[in-house]
Amino acid sequence: MNSELNIRSKRKDQHVKHALSQKIDGDSDFNHVHLIHQSLPAVNLDTVNLNACFGEFEFQSPIYINAMTGGSEWTKSINRKLAEVAAAVKIPMAVGSMHAAIKDDSVIDSFKIVREKNPDGIIFANVGADVSPADACYAVELLQADGLQIHINAPQELIMPEGDRDFKNWRENIIETKKAVKVPVIVKEVGFGMSKETIQTLVQAGIKYIDVSGKGGTNFAEIENRRRFGQDMNFLFNWGQSTVVSLIESKPFQNDSFILASGGVTSPLDAVKSIALGANAVGISKAVLEKIQTDGVEGTVRYIEQFIVHMKKISVMVSAENIQQLQKTPVVLSAEIESWKRQRNL
Ligand code: FNR
Question: Signal peptide: which range, if any (predicted)?
Answer without folding.
Answer: none
